[in-house]
Amino acid sequence: MEMEKGKVxxxxxxxxxxxxxxxxxxxxxxxxxxxxxxxxxxAVWIYSLTYGGGIVSGDSISVEFTIGDGCTAVLTTxxxxxxxxxxxxxxxxxxxxxxxGSGALFVVIPDPVTCFSTARYSQKQVFRVVSxxxxxxVDWFTSGRHESGEKWDxxxxxxxxxxxxxxxxxxxxDTVLLEQSSPVDIAERMHxxxxxxxxxxxxxxxxxxxxxxxxxxxxLMSQQLQIxxxxxxxxxxxxxxxxxxxxxFIASCSAFGPKGMGVVVRVASTTTEAxxxxxxxxxxxxxxxxGVSPYS
Length: 296
Hints:
The chain is an alpha/beta fold. The protein has 5 helices and 18 strands. Strands 3, 4, 5, 7, 8, 10, 11, 13, 16, 17 and 18 form an 11-stranded mixed β-sheet that branches.
């Protein structure tokens, strides 16, 4: 049976981006503050909440966003999305579909997903753009409550992000899948890393942010990946994985889409705090468009 969808519509009202329709179904709730940041900035902020502080087995959440021509909308959360244990083979699901109009900007900047022990979680986000739409997506998840021993202890995590242009032309297709049933368990594959993140920046309104992020990531990793010569010599002699120095924070950056209109950054970190700092620094250039710097 098709799940009932929530709907959010943003249109221009008296020259300002405004939520003209907002409907959500349990366990999801949307809050739209009257004012976030500078009043001279045309951006509407939408906070997504889940009743009870999280998602449980069998929850199915589906929502559609329509961002009208020339509008700016930000979708965020007030805390991490917690996914609790599964019962049997039930999987918690979230589906987000969005249409971004001409000259519009849609920014999806949630806190991370955190899957607790035995949880099964799947999310899919589909964005439909036109030639001059702009889009930012932050999609990230953490290892769980590793202080309590729940380090990569969930059963399944799947996250798909798809961008389609006019004529259903694929621009970006990406899926992250972690499942415990593979020969090597998730914790062993992830080594000491506690957070995995993807940052996608697309469209003409964000060219200055893309250029700055690419330069920042290039400079950051040139510093991070400098291995001392003595340690390098040790690894060359023994060919032992124990000699390798894994940086606490790794980031890579690449362009995608027609004429390189998009940039995608992938991050792995040993701490959540380091990713928050990274996101705040890299997306700070968006403050004039949003009224507030993301993750501030």
